[in-house]
Amino acid sequence: MVKTQRLVIDDKTQASWNNEEAVTERAASGNDTKKQSMKPEAFTAARTETPERSVGRALDAAATRAFDVVVSLLGLVVLGPLLIVVALLVRLSSRGPVLFRQRRIGRSFKTFEIYKFRSMVQNAERVGRQITVGQDSRITRIGQLLRKTKIDELPQLMNVLKGDMSLVGPRPEVPRYVEMFREDYEEILQVRPGITDMASVRFRNESEVLAESTDPEQAYVSEILPQKIQLAKQYIGCRSLLFDILLIVQTIAAVLGIHRGVEKSY
Questions:
Q1: Measured between alpha carbons, how far is 104 from 177 in angstroms, rounded to an integer?
Q2: Residue 229: helix, strand or coil by DSSP?
Q3: 143 sits in which H/E element
Q4: DSSP 3-state assignment of 195?
Q5: Residue 263's closest CA among 12, 7, 18, 4?
Q6: DSSP secondary structure letter of residue 196
Q7: Quick count: other Cβ atoms within 10 Å of Cβ 215?
Q8: What pLDDT, in 10s, does the model give residues 169-185?
Q9: CA 84 to chain CA mean position, Å
Q10: pLDDT tens per residue across span 85-136
């Protein structure tokens, strides 16, 4: 189902991906440097639980939640002035609310409202796709800057503080896409969705990639989303607080343009 042969990757990007995968494999298998398979049985083996591993998982989950609460709270306080300025710019630049709210599927298939600074015209979902492609005409002038810098995602710190999300975890999808791959999401949604994850780094320029497709919706469902699902499963197999911190650093590097995303030609 995943058509990876269409991805065109330069040597620098491939080397970066290989480094990410090497870190993931070491976290999942200790000293075993053999490359993990993306097949389901490999993920099952990686998740084999022992009493000691279960205790370790519980402690790590508690540490991760504590980390989420502390960082999200500090983030909202430290970034408060920036959030206020952005809120005013959004409100004054176009009609509509400051925050965009959308129903997403969270842990254990519980629905929640995800928060973002509104970067599109009011009621954009009623006049176009649920995915954003290239220079979408629905994106406002200030919205283009917010999306490029990922500042539009900062209100999700409130989702983290509420417990709907984590700083790091599989990105939450809309109900329609979850239902298309429900069996996969039964595994993925054992954990809280996150603000960033491995797919967020790899598909940093997803909108531009989809813009090259003659059918962006189909390209997302048949090519990009299955790859995101595999990356989410890979993350679940080796998640830890240390690995989360590494992904946060990689995300910052991606936003700053140090880490490149995928390129695709049709």
A1: 10
A2: helix
A3: helix 141-149
A4: strand
A5: 7
A6: E
A7: 11
A8: 999 999 999 999 999 99
A9: 25
A10: 999 999 999 999 999 999 999 999 999 999 999 999 887 777 777 677 777 7
